[in-house]
Design brief:
The complex is a heterodimer of chains A (699) and B (332). Chain A contains 18 helices and 34 strands. In chain A, α1 packs across α3 and α14 runs parallel beside α18 (686-695). Helix content of chain B is 15%, strand content 32%. The chains are: A alpha+beta (699), B alpha+beta (332).
C-alpha cells in the first residue's frame, strides 16, 4: 500500500512546487499531508483556467525535445546510408577502412560523400547499402585530402533524397546536435546527441560537437534538431588539429564535422574528379608565436607560389581575402581552409627605403601597400640551403664577430676572393653581429642569389659580391689544424646514474683563440662534438679512446664513444645516454653548436641516423661508415631551421654501390650529402671524421 | 471536476522534471556487494527493485558467487539478499530481499523505445556511492536498438537478443545491473556487463531491454530452470562445394575473389565467373573468405543460396540453388 501511495504523493508535491503560485519549495514541505491535499485541490481548481496547460508545457520541455530528436532522426534516415568495403588495410593497429561506415547522399542522381576512414586508398570495392537492403556498387570519384572526405557515385534509377543544409551563419554554440551513423546496422540508425561545442575549429575546416563521435558514425550527418545537416562527421586528417590522426579523439567528448555548406561549394570540383589537397603558399614567418605577432614574411622561397606572385622577405601581410590581418593566426584562419589551385588575394606592407639598423634612419622609412594574387599549390620543391663557402671561426654564442677561419676550395667565396681573417660587417644593409645571425640570413636567401658582402680586411672595408652555391659536404685538405698537444687530451668515462654503459669521452683542452683582436677574457676556442657509434659490443674500453686522441686534439673535437646497453644491437634504449652525454660534455668544455655531429659504422650507422632524427636540429651532420641509410629511415625534408648534411664514408670497396639508392632519397628531401673515398682500408678514419666536424661550420 | 482532471494527469501523461525523474527512480536502484575484489574483479555491482515483494533484478556475475550478498538501498538500509535463480542465457539473476516496504519499478507493459529516446542510466559505477549515498546518474539517448550479435566487431557474450546501445559511457565496473529509465521515469532496460570488441577494442555502452528480461524473470520466480544454450558452433561451409574456388587465403582478410569455377557445379550453372568478387551471401555482406564460409553456414538447409558478385563494376545477383547435401555429409 505504502509503495503505491508514495509515488502518487511525490507527484502531487512536484506539481505544487512547480506551479507559479508557490515560489518556494519549502512551503510545500511545511504543509502537512492533509493541508497539502487541499492545496492540491486549490491548484486543480485554478488549473481549469487557461493557465494550466502552459504550466504543463513548461514541464514537458524534455519530452518535447525527445520528440524533436526522433523526428530529426527519422528525417536523417533518408539520406544517411551505410557504406561497406572490401579490401581494407591489413594493418591491425589502424581501424580505418576496417568495417562498415556511413555516408551522406548529397546529389539526387547518386552522389554520396563519406570519409577516408571508410574508404582508404587500399579499398578495392565500396558498396552503398540502403535501409531496405538494396545494395549498389559505388565508384570512388575523388578525394578531399584536406578534410579527409571521399566522393562516391552510384547508379540509381530513382532520385535519392538529399538533406537540407544548415547554413554556417545560423549556427550557435550550445544548440542541439544529432550525430547519425549506420555502421552498426543498415536498418536502424545510430544516434548520438550533444551540443555544438565550437565553430571554426581546425583553422576553419570544421565545427565541433560533444556528441559521441566514433567509427560508429564517421561519415554520417551531424544534424540540427530540425534534421537539417550541419556537416559530415569526420576524423580530421593529420596535423589539422595538432594531432597525428583525428581518430585519436575517439570517445573524448570532442568530435568534428566538416560543414555541408563547405562541401557543397566544392562539389562541382569533386564531381569533375579533382583531388583536393591542402593549399600551400610557401611563406615562413619571422615570429614563433602566431597569436601575438604580425604576419611578417621571414622566408619566401623561390619556387613557392608566394615568391612567384612577388612577395619578398620583410613584407608584412595586412589583408587576406579582404579581411584585415594583424596577427599570423588570423592569416592561418584564412589560408588553412583553402585548397591547392585556390587563389588568395593579399595586401602587403613593404618598406620603400632600404632597412638599416640605424634607428635615426628607421623613422624615415616609408611604406607602400601592394596587392598580390597567389595561387596555392599542393607541394613545394624541397628546400635547398644556399651556401657561400665561408667557414667562420668557432664561437659559442651570439655576440661574437663573424671572422672567416678558412674558405672552402672552389666555392663562391673562394672565387670572389674572400680570405681567412676577413671580418664580415654587413650583408646587403644588415649589420652582421654574430655567426648565428649570418647563418639565418643566408638560409633565407635564394639558392643562386647575388649577395653583396661588406668585409673588413686589415682595417679596410671591401665590398665583395658573390653568387651563392650549394652546401659542400666533404673534408677539404686545407682545414686548419691546431698544434698537436696530445698530453692535454683527457680520456674519461661520463658517469650517469641511469646509464648502464656510460660512454667514454675524449676531451681535448681548448686551445687559445688565434684572433689577436679578440680581447675578451674567455679566449678559449670552443670545441666540436662527435658521437661515434661503432658496431655494438657493449662497453667501450680505454684503448679505443686512445685511437681518437690525436684527431681530437688536432681538430678540437670532443669524441664521445657510447657503449650499447645490449651487446648485440643498438636500440631505442640507448637514446637517453645521448642527451646525458651532450649535457655532460657541454658542462665541461665550451662548445660550438654548429659543429655537433654523429657518426656510425655498420650497425652503428643506422643508430647514428636514428640519433640525428630523434634530436632534430642538434646534430648538423651524420657520417655513415660502410653502410647506407637505414631502409626504414624517416627522412625529414630539408628545412631552413634544421641544417643537416650527410657524409658517406667507405672503408671497404665492395659496399660502395649501395649509396645510389640513398642518393635519390636525399636529393628528393633536399638534403646535401657527400662522399669520401680516400679512406679505403682505414678501419676508423679518426682524422678525417674529426676534420669533417670542423667543416660542418661552412656557411 | 478538478479531482477528475487531477487523476487523469497524475496517472498517465504526468510530466516530471528530469531532476524529479532521477530522484524517484534512483530510490529503486540498489548497491550490491558480494564476492570478488581481487585480480581485477569487482566485488560490487548494481540492481533494480522490481516487485512489491522485494525482488531485485541484476546481472549474473562473480559478485554473486558469495555466501552473503549485501544489498544496500538508497536510504542506507542494508539487506542480506538471497539468490532466487539465474538465466545464464541472458546473464540475468533474481535476488530476494524478503522485504515488502521497498519502492520498486512497475515494469508491466513497457514497449520498446526507438533511437533518439532520452535516457538516464542509474548505477553504482566504480562503486563511488557508499552507504546511504544515492547511485550515480548519467544522461544520454538510445543510439540504436540492435541484436548484440550483429554489431561491429565480435563480442563474447552469451546473450544474442536486441540491446539498446547508448551514446554515453555507462558500462563501467559496478554498473552492471543498473537501471535504464526514460524521461518519464519508466524502467526500460538493465545495464549489462562491460563488453568490448575483440577486433576493434571499442567499449560499448548498452542495456538489455526490460521486455527481453521480464519473461525470464517470471520463469525464475515460477521455479522453471533455465539451461544455458548449447554452444552454437558456427558452421563454416567451404564454397568449393558449390564449385567456387576462391583466391588462396594469403592474408587475414583476403577478399573473396573467385579464382576459378569447377566444371558442372552449381556455380558453373549459375554462371559465376573467375575474377568475380563475392560481396554478399543472401543479405549478409561478406568481406573475406572466412566471412563468406560463415555466411554460407548460416543459410538454412534446403534454402536456395543467392550470392551477389561484383563484375566489371556491376553488382550481379546469382542463384546457386540449394546447398548440396554437405551438412549431412560433414556430419557423417
Amino acid at each position: 500500500m505504502i509503495t503505491h501511495t508514495l509515488p502518487l504523493m511525490t507527484r502531487m508535491r512536484l506539481m505544487v512546487s512547480s506551479s507559479p503560485f508557490f515560489c518556494s519549495h519549502s512551503l510545500g514541505v511545511i504543509l502537512g499531508e492533509s493541508l497539502r491535499f487541499f492545496v492540491f485541490l486549490l491548484v486543480g481548481l485554478l488549473c481549469e483556467s487557461s493557465r494550466f496547460p502552459r504550466l504543463l508545457q513548461a514541464d514537458d520541455i524534455s519530452i518535447e525535445e525527445e520528440d524533436a530528436f526522433r523526428t530529426a532522426v527519422a528525417r536523417a534516415e533518408m539520406f544517411a546510408v551505410r557504406i561497406e568495403v572490401i579490401g581494407a588495410a591489413e594493418a591491425s593497429e589502424d581501424t580505418a577502412g576496417a568495417g562498415p561506415s556511413t555516408g551522406v547522399v548529397i546529389g539526387t542522381d547518386g552522389w554520396i560523400i563519406t570519409t577516408s576512414f571508410a574508404i582508404t586508398d587500399e579499398t578495392i570495392e565500396a558498396m552503398v547499402v540502403f535501409p531496405d537492403g538494396l545494395r549498389r556498387s559505388a565508384k570512388v570519384v575523388s578525394r578531399d585530402r584536406s578534410r579527409g572526405l571521399v566522393l562516391i557515385k552510384i547508379e540509381t534509377s530513382v532520385p535519392l533524397r538529399i538533406p537540407e543544409p544548415a547554413l554556417r551563419q545560423g549556427l550557435e554554440v550550445g544548440q542541439w546536435t544529432l550525430a547519425i551513423g549506420r555502421a552498426w546496422n543498415s536498418k536502424t540508425p545510430y544516434v548520438a546527441v550533444g551540443i555544438l561545442s565550437a565553430l571554426d575549429r581546425a583553422w576553419g575546416k570544421a565545427v565541433q560537437t560533444d556528441a559521441s563521435i566514433s567509427p560508429a558514425n564517421y561519415g554520417g550527418p551531424l544534424c540540427d534538431i530540425e534534421g537539417r545537416v550541419i556537416g559530415v562527421l569526420a576524423p580530421l586528417p593529420a596535423d589539422t588539429a595538432g594531432m597525428q590522426s583525428g581518430s585519436e579523439l575517439y570517445d573524448s567528448g570532442i568530435g568534428f564535422a566538416v560543414p555541408l555548406e563547405d562541401i557543397l561549394s566544392v562539389l562541382p570540383r569533386l564531381q569533375a574528379g579533382e583531388t583536393l589537397s591542402p593549399g600551400i603558399i610557401g611563406i615562413g614567418y619571422r615570429a614563433t608565436d602566431p597569436f601575438t605577432s604580425p604576419a611578417v614574411v621571414a622566408t619566401c622561397r623561390s619556387g613557392s607560389p608566394a615568391f612567384a606572385a612577388g612577395l619578398r622577405s620583410g613584407d608584412e601581410i595586412i589583408k587576406a581575402q579582404g579581411k584585415s590581418i594583424s596577427r599570423i593566426a588570423q592569416l592561418r584562419h584564412v589560408l588553412a581552409p583553402l585548397y591547392a589551385n585556390d587563389t588568395v588575394h593579399l595586401v602587403v606592407k613593404r618598406a620603400t627605403a632600404p632597412r638599416t639598423n640605424n634607428t635615426d634612419t628607421a623613422s624615415e622609412e616609408t611604406f607602400q601597400q601592394l596587392p598580390f594574387t597567389v595561387t596555392l599549390v599542393e607541394s613545394l620543391p624541397p628546400y635547398r640551403r644556399p651556401c657561400a663557402g665561408i667557414v667562420l671561426q668557432r664561437s659559442t654564442g651570439d655576440s661574437q664577430p663573424a671572422i672567416v677561419s678558412w674558405v672552402w676550395p672552389n666555392s663562391a667565396a673562394s672565387a670572389a676572393g674572400i680570405k681567412p681573417a676577413d671580418r664580415i660587417e654587413r650583408i646587403h644593409e644588415t649589420v652582421i653581429e654574430s655567426a648565428t645571425q649570418l647563418s639565418g640570413i643566408l638560409a633565407g636567401l635564394e639558392p643562386k642569389a647575388l649577395v653583396p658582402f661588406h668585409i673588413k680586411r686589415n682595417d679596410t672595408l671591401i665590398d665583395i659580391e658573390l653568387t651563392l652555391g650549394e652546401v659542400p659536404v666533404g673534408v677539404p685538405d686545407l682545414i686548419a689544424q691546431a698544434d698537436l698537444i696530445e698530453d692535454a687530451v683527457q680520456i674519461e668515462t661520463l658517469e650517469a646514474p641511469e646509464v648502464a654503459k656510460p660512454p667514454l669521452a675524449v676531451l681535448p683542452k681548448p686551445s687559445p683563440h688565434d684572433d689577436p683582436s679578440d680581447d675578451t677574457t674567455n679566449n678559449e676556442m670552443p670545441l666540436g662534438i662527435l658521437f661515434f657509434f661503432d658496431e655494438p659490443r657493449g662497453q667501450v674500453d680505454k684503448d679505443t679512446g686512445e685511437l681518437w686522441r690525436a684527431a681530437a686534439a688536432r681538430y678540437g673535437v670532443v669524441v664521445v664513444l657510447p657503449g650499447s646497453t645490449d651487446t648485440n644491437r643498438w636500440g631505442r634504449q640507448d637514446l637517453p645516454l645521448v642527451a646525458r652525454a651532450l649535457d655532460s660534455v657541454r658542462s665541461r668544455r665550451p662548445i660550438d653548436l654548429s659543429r655537433i655531429a654523429v657518426a656510425g659504422r655498420g650497425a652503428g650507422g643506422a643508430f647514428a641516423w636514428m640519433v640525428a632524427e630523434s634530436f632534430g636540429g642538434v646534430f648538423r651532420g651524420v657520417a655513415l661508415i660502410d653502410t647506407g641509410l637505414p631502409r626504414s629511415a624517416k627522412i625529414t625534408p630539408s628545412d631552413p631551421g634544421l641544417p643537416l648534411s650527410i657524409l658517406f664514408c667507405q672503408t671497404v670497396a665492395q659496399k660502395a654501390r649501395k649509396i645510389d639508392a640513398d642518393r635519390s632519397r636525399l636529393e628528393k628531401a633536399g638534403l646535401p650529402f657527400g662522399q669520401i673515398d680516400e679512406v679505403l682500408n682505414d678501419p676508423i678514419p679518426t682524422e678525417r671524421l674529426a676534420a669533417w666536424v670542423e667543416s660542418l661550420g661552412v656557411l | 471536476m478538478a479531482i477528475a482532471l487531477f487523476l487523469a494527469m497524475t496517472t498517465e501523461s504526468m510530466a516530471l522534471r528530469p531532476e524529479e525523474t532521477i530522484a524517484s527512480a534512483a530510490r529503486k536502484v540498489v548497491k550490491l556487494y558480494g564476492a570478488g575484489g581481487f585480480r581485477g574483479l569487482e566485488a560490487y555491482q548494481s540492481g533494480v527493485l522490481i516487485s512489491q515483494e522485494g525482488h531485485v533484478l541484476t546481472v549474473m556475475s562473480t559478485v554473486l558467487d558469495s555466501d552473503q550478498i549485501d544489498c544496500v538501498l538508497d536510504d542506507g538500509t542494508r539487506y542480506v539478499a538471497t539468490l532466487v535463480g539465474v538465466d545464464p542465457r541472458r546473464e540475468l539473476a533474481v535476488l530476494s530481499l524478503q522485504a515488502t516496504d521497498t519502492p520498486f519499478f512497475d515494469s508491466n507493459n513497457i514497449e520498446r523505445s526507438p533511437p533518439g529516446t532520452r535516457i538516464f542510466a542509474l548505477s553504482n559505477l566504480f562503486g563511488v556511492a557508499v552507504g546511504d549515498e544515492r547511485v550515480s546518474a548519467q544522461h544520454g539517448v538510445i543510439a540504436t536498438v540492435i541484436p548484440l550479435a550483429a554489431r561491429r566487431g565480435a563480442y563474447e557474450a552469451p546473450y544474442r537478443g536486441d540491446v539498446y546501445l547508448l551514446d554515453c559511457t555507462t558500462n563501467n565496473p559496478g554498473s552492471p545491473g543498473g537501471a535504464l529509465v526514460d524521461y518519464r521515469g519508466r524502467l526500460i532496460g538493465m545495464l549489462g556487463k562491460e563488453l568490448r570488441s575483440s577486433t576493434s577494442g571499442i567499449w560499448i555502452s548498452y542495456a538489455i531491454p526490460i521486455d527481453e528480461l521480464l519473461p525470464a524473470y517470471r520463469d525464475i520466480l515460477d521455479g522453471k530452470s533455465v539451461e544455458p544454450e548449447t554452444s552454437s558452433l558456427v558452421v563454416r561451409i567451404d564454397p568449393t562445394v558449390l564449385g567456387v574456388v576462391l583466391l588462396p587465403d594469403l592474408l587475414d582478410k583476403t577478399p573473396p575473389f573467385v579464382e576459378s569455377i569447377l566444371p558442372d557445379s552449381p556455380a558453373a550453372r549459375a554462371d559465376v565467373r573467375a575474377d568475380d568478387l563475392v560481396v554478399a551471401v543472401g543479405l549478409d555482406s561478406v568481406g573475406s573468405r572466412i566471412s563468406m564460409s560463415r555466411a554460407l553456414g548460416r543459410v538454412p538447409a534446403g534454402d536456395p543460396i543467392q550470392i551477389t558478385v561484383v563484375r566489371n563494376g556491376e553488382l550481379i545477383d546469382l542463384d546457386l540453388g540449394p546447398l548440396p547435401d554437405t551438412k549431412k555429409a560433414a556430419r557423417q
